[in-house]
Design brief:
Layout: E1 2-5, E2 10-13, E3 16-19, H1 21-33, E4 38-41, H2 56-65, E5 70-73, E6 76-77, H3 83-96, E7 101-106, H4 111-114, H5 124-140, E8 145-146, E9 152-153, E10 167-171, H6 175-184, E11 187-189, H7 196-213, E12 219-227, H8 231-252, H9 275-279, E13 284-286, H10 288-302, E14 306-310, H11 319-332, H12 334-337
Parallel strand pairs: 1-4, 1-14, 4-5, 5-7, 6-7, 7-10, 10-11, 11-12, 12-13, 12-14
Antiparallel strand pairs: 2-3, 8-9
Helix pairs in contact: 1-11, 3-5, 6-7
Length: 338
């Protein structure tokens, strides 16, 4: 099993968010030096965010500044973008950095990320399926006529790019989403919000669908994470950041479910959410021993090939603390699972 990181591209300076290219690259280079597999970049168009408006461009930057680390989008919101452009750009990056790039796409869920493109959430499932067909047709050199908002012809992949090595994964957190990943993608990236028990249910659905199709399931487990020498120290450092993030998703109403979070019946508002609720079965937060015990449980149930962790958010912890935590994982955890 391998480990990857989701570095932050923004930080707070004097109370305002700023782009943080230096910090992004520092996280990537520290991970590369420590034997991590890759780094993933996300996409966000509105609201406070650790990411920025494009998931692909930071990958290109990271690829050009490192030599071994792989990079991937997680996720590119496919229904908001012309699928031919997504397919062409991904194939070009794959050719420029052979074997080091993965395109991860998702259907999206937040109307604010759709508004700039004039796309409704009601259209997203149809456009997602169309987009996956376009990516497959482009890579295979098949002709395809597009209808709807992206009407036109799908061109074949440029033969000048050489052999196609692109991996295409889907990020999903629903039953239809993981079934789509099994049908149309090379693998599935989980979300970092749902509890391990909820993810385990989705993993069972995904694996069953893969078995029907005669495909090998490939799972990337995405989690919020922080490591220090003791559980108490890790909670003290990371707790305020992950709790704020968790409360945002509680208010959106799509991250918790009584079937998998039985404590939910006692929590009536985001303000009632505590670290004990947020950390349990969701967040890798603690000592090296706590990390290893939790990973072993997830490994037994989910059988992921890769664990993707996000440590730093735009509001913290600090870059220096984050680099120290990355190095600790490199020294204390990665050798145990490599």
């Amino acid at each position: 099993m391998r480990f990857s990181i989701a570095p932050a591209l923004q930080k707070i300076v004097d109370g305002k968010r700023q782009l943080d290219v230096e910090g992004f690259l520092a996280e990537c280079k520290t991970a590369e030096a420590g034997g991590w597999l890759g780094a993933y970049s996300g996409e966000k168009h509105i609201g406070d965010t650790t990411y920025t408006t494009n998931a692909l461009i930071p990958c290109v930057l990271g690829l050009s500044e490192t030599s071994k680390l792989k990079f991937g989008t997680s996720v590119t919101v496919l229904p908001t973008q012309h699928p031919v452009r997504v397919a062409e750009d991904a194939c070009l990056v794959d050719a420029m950095f052979p074997g080091r790039f993965r395109l991860t796409v998702g259907v999206g869920y937040f109307q604010g990320d759709f508004d700039p493109f004039g796309i409704s959430l009601r259209q997203r499932k149809r456009l997602m399926d169309q987009g996956m067909e376009v990516i497959a047709a482009h890579r295979a050199g098949r002709s395809m006529q597009l209808e709807g908002p992206w009407a036109g012809n799908v061109p074949p992949r440029d033969p000048a790019l050489g052999r196609d090595q692109l991996e295409v994964f889907i990020g999903a957190w629903s039953v239809p989403g993981v079934k789509r990943a099994a049908r149309t993608a090379d693998g599935w990236v989980t979300d970092p919000i749902r509890s391990g028990r909820w993810v385990a249910h989705l993993a069972d659905v995904y694996k069953a669908e893969c078995e029907k199709l005669g495909k090998q399931p490939r799972i990337v487990l995405f989690r919020e994470a922080w490591m220090e020498e003791t559980d108490a120290a890790a909670r003290a450092t990371y707790g305020p950041h992950v709790l704020g993030y968790s409360r945002v998703y509680f208010e959106r109403g799509n991250a918790y479910h009584e079937d998998y979070d039985p404590w939910l019946k006692d929590v009536s508002s985001a303000a009632d959410l505590t670290l004990d609720h947020a950390l349990h079965d969701r967040v890798l937060c603690g000592s090296p021993q706590t990390w290893c015990e939790q990973i072993e449980q997830w490994q037994e149930v989910l059988e992921p090939e890769e664990i993707l962790v996000r440590m730093r958010h735009f509001q913290g912890p600090s870059l220096q603390q984050t680099l120290e935590s990355i190095r600790a994982v490199s020294d204390e955890v990665i050798p145990r699972f490599s």
